[in-house]
Amino acid sequence: MQDKPNNSCDGQEPLPGELPPLRTSSRKKRGRKRGRGIYTAIAILLACALVLAVWVNRDNLKPANISEWVQTQMLGIGTGKGYPVHFNTENVMTRNFVSSGKDIFFTSDTAVRAYNSSAKELFNRKHSFSEPVMKVNGNRILVYNLGGTGYQLGNQLNTLLAGNADNKILGGAVCANGRFALLTQADGYCGKLTVYLPNGQVAFSYSFSEYSPTAVAMNASGTHAAVTAVSASNGVLTSVIYELDFNSNKTVKPIASYSDTTFLDICYTDSNGVLAVGDTQTAALSAGGKKLSAYSYGDGELCSWNLQRGGAVLGISKFHNAVAGTLAAVGTDGKQTAVVQVDRAPSSVSRMGQVMAALCGSKIQAYSIAGGGAAGTCSVGTNARAVALRTEKQAYILDVSEVRLEGLKA
């Protein structure tokens, strides 16, 4: 008689009348080991991601910064009396009306103020500048006196420092980490860039000998600056862009030049390139300083703009004193992403997410920055002076004597 083959572990089918073979526990053990290995790998990846996040945000995780963040969040808790907010005796310039973090910041001829979406006052600080210009980045607010020497740096909690530049101020920029820069006139030079640490100490300076600086931007970490400058020779107007490394004291040459334009504003883009808005064109440079596209206004006249890391929104009139106008979105590569013809020349423009908005007469008109499809509208009256989008569906409106929060309807 032949021995019956053992089917318990050789993978063969059971004979008729036999029960299915029992499996050994070795496969279960191997399965458990594989499961533990997967969980271990996931845990290691999560730990690496946490370490990387801590390293990238190491400056923000300092005890002082954590304390400031907590206090700022506490400041925003609670509700106000609702909009509108009135300021009958103050004059607010449209350039000093900025939405940041869904709150509204604005600087009048007497004070710097901020309110949340329920009109709760976050702060209200007096200043004595005759020509104030406000720059907001994260929780840092820089206000300087254009054509004067005074400046002050603050957050939502306090004025952190105040001082006077050595000469008349031409422009400025601020980083979220508190570093800031001022462009000033300079004896014997066309102008000077001075970069300050958050405590007010000078970290870097550079004097321009060939071109007069017009605007400055700093990268996110505050280690580099892009500066626009202009010069006129034999009736030819030339604008240039400088790239400055704060760790180098070498004399630098412009990385790009443009004819027949004056740059009014500049910023670093999400791709670490540069985007500059001029009176006749908006130009883009790559992170390596290579010229990309430039969006020309043709015969149009620039009447408003909004410049952010993700691109520019431009309000252009058809020609000088024209009634109708154009609303255009320009990407970080300098190429047009949307253009819309509007009945009234945009006197103020804004951008939030994928939506751009323009104040055209007594209406706010909003469109997609990707193609120009309609995104909403609202009537704001004939006294409206500026728009600042809070979200893609809400907009802060600057009126002659008040600030309002309006919804955009499709």
Automatic annotation (TrEMBL):
Annotated keywords: Membrane, Transmembrane, Transmembrane helix
Record keyword Transmembrane helix present: yes
Comp. bias intervals (Polar residues): 1-10
Biased composition range(s): Low complexity: 13-22
Family annotation (SUPFAM superfamilies): YVTN repeat-like/Quinoprotein amine dehydrogenase
Membrane-crossing segments per the record: 37-56
InterPro entries: DUF5711, Quino_amine_DH_bsu
Region (Disordered): 1-31
Protein name: Phosphodiester glycosidase domain-containing protein
